[in-house]
């Protein structure tokens, strides 16, 4: 979140300042008391799918507006999260 907030500030805009506001604005909902690994991994993969969709949308807009800083940031996040999705999916196939 810190990198994104810094990017927002760099673009002369004000980021959200509290975790409660982040939670209010998030499509990813918190879950509690997960007791088995399959449910936990499923929730993580679902959350990553939401993040990747949003990041790709931001990447597209940033590309169209020549915002190279945001393009770079989103590209880095996408690469890391796609690898994580691949690793977690492989883990699910293994167990």
From TrEMBL:
Domain of life of the source: Bacteria
One Pfam family hit: Ferritin
Domain Ferritin/DPS: 1-92
Gene3D superfamilies registered for this protein in UniProt: 1.20.1260.10
SUPFAM superfamilies: Ferritin-like
Similarity-based family: Belongs to the Dps family.
Record PANTHER family: GENERAL STRESS PROTEIN 20U (PTHR42932)
Protein's recorded name: Ferritin-like domain-containing protein
């Amino acid at each position: 979140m810190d990198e994104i907030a810094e990017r927002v500030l760099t673009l002369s805009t004000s980021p959200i300042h509290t975790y409660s506001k982040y939670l209010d604005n998030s499509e990813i909902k918190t879950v509690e008391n997960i007791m088995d690994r399959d449910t936990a991994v499923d929730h993580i993969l679902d959350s990553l799918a939401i993040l990747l969709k949003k990041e790709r949308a931001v990447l597209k807009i940033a590309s169209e507006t020549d915002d190279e800083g945001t393009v770079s940031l989103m590209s880095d996040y996408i690469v890391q999260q796609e690898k994580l999705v691949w690793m977690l999916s492989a883990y699910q196939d293994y167990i």
